[in-house]
């Protein structure tokens, strides 16, 4: 089974992002960039499927600026076989990205596409569902366990009330949640090997996809700051304040 | 201009978040005009549809009652949304795993860029939404003819559950897409209020050390009529089930009172609770970032402080 994994380059999840003073966006100059954590989990799952003899080839795809190559290299160092960069300097939105990924799927014909459940920059959480819709495939979002049987996958999903299990026909789209696995760190020899793995480059034009944004960002602002509170000296004082000052208990 | 709200329900009754989504619909209707309709898609969902008909401000309820909507599989529900969307300018769903799963699928079929997790309505086509785990708020304007939106429940005050008298209209089903099937569910059973609608939440983190120790928090929760939540670290360690997780990738909550016990206050956790009205932090590390957002901070060992808190609450 050939597996495609979609990976996004984002501001590292542990960086405290700063809003630009002109309100046009967030500061990206000299900020550490990494693979979106949910994409790491998706790559790890693909690699485990290959190690288990279920996946035969893993293709890592990223859409974005030239630097997204680094993100693809990370996926290759984790165990993906080759990469595809769909290069674009435009601000891409989930619908445009889903259309680009669909065009890549049409060329590559994988049986499974793994994505992250959400990218931690824009927190959209839409791309996997949109790609699935455009392809007319089945979808299993928020996966915490994936098992393959004949022609279908059994997927455990993290839902608001607990866990749900569904069966989806292949080909399928699966999006990874936090507890699907713990991604590995790439070893130095694997990082070296990854440098020799091929990365193809494409453009939205070559794929015949219109990625013009539908949303325009009018403003990006800091959320209202919380007022600094007080330290209390004892549990008794805490309860007194909650009762008589805040009046919440 | 009319608005269709995709109701969250379990066939027998509506989930409270539906009232918050109707509130967002009202905010949109104030700018754009138009009626608010609610779609109840399910199997044997008559009771939930009747409940929806009573919601204040709802003009009509559409009931799609058919076996293929039983498990709310996105592959089956999205085509229904697409068909109904013909008659609407807005389609709204809650930012829950149910809403987030199906709405983008319908949006792509309509060639619309969905707008996730709005926390404010600026104009008929302009919305505010948190990005970067709530570290920034983006104001976005949509150029799509139809708007497909998921709504952050905690950002809109619920409308009244009673007072309306909408008509209930049956709508035909779109058939089973045959792509996926439901196998089973393991839902967490609890007598306590639901996290996203609880007035008080007591949450534990890695500092709790074990699942057994969460019993301490449960006793406090029962005294306060509270829900119990957790950090990702506590869930990953297996102390509590996944649906306890509060944060960027768990649940977003905004109770009157949030008590964080043994939780450091990572940005991803804060993303899910920093809009709470009053925040209490109990942590032995006085440098813990949770203290920066806490109204009341207690630097203490939780294994001492929590039993003391229980005793203090018993005093009444
Ligand atoms: C993509 C991504 C998404 C994430 N999503 C979420 C999310 O939705 N929700 C979430 O919570 N996290 C999320 N995280 C994880 C987050 O970054 C933190 O790792 C996590 O919140 C830490 O949990 P914690 O505070 O319980 O653990 P720790 O950071 O280990 O903190 C434990 C705290 O307990 C205190 N403590 C220990 N013992 C005691 C004691 N005896 N008495 C008092 N205090 C004590 C310590 O001082 C410490 O402050 C996400 C991370 C990533 C990368
Ligand atoms: N620019 C991109 N290139 C490749 N994959 C992407 C891109 N943006 C989003 N994705 C995939 O879609 C998932 C969800 O992203 P989003 O819908 O933006 O929250 C990510 O975890 C990726 O797997």
In terms of DSSP E residues, the strand content of chain A is 25-35%
Proportion in helices of chain B: 25-40%
| H/E series of chain B | EHEHEHEHEEEEEEEEHEHEHEHEH
Number of helices of chain A: 7
Mind explaining what this structure looks like?
- The complex is a heterodimer of chains A (about 250) and B (about 325).
- In chain A, about 30% of the residues lie in helices and about 30% in strands.
- With about 250 residues, chain A is of the alpha/beta class.
- A seven-stranded parallel β-sheet of chain B has the order 5-9-4-1-2-3-10, sandwiched between helices. A five-stranded parallel β-sheet of chain B has the order 13-12-14-15-16. In chain B, strands 6-7-8 form a three-stranded antiparallel β-sheet.
- Helix content of chain B is about 25%, strand content about 25%.
- Chain B has helices at about 15-30, 45-55, 75-85, 95-110, 215-225, 230-235, 265-270, 290-295, 300-315; strands spanning about 5, 35-40, 60-65, 90-95, 115-120, 120-125, 125-130, 135-140, 145-150, 165-170, 180-185, 200-205, 225-230, 255-260, 280-285, 295-300.
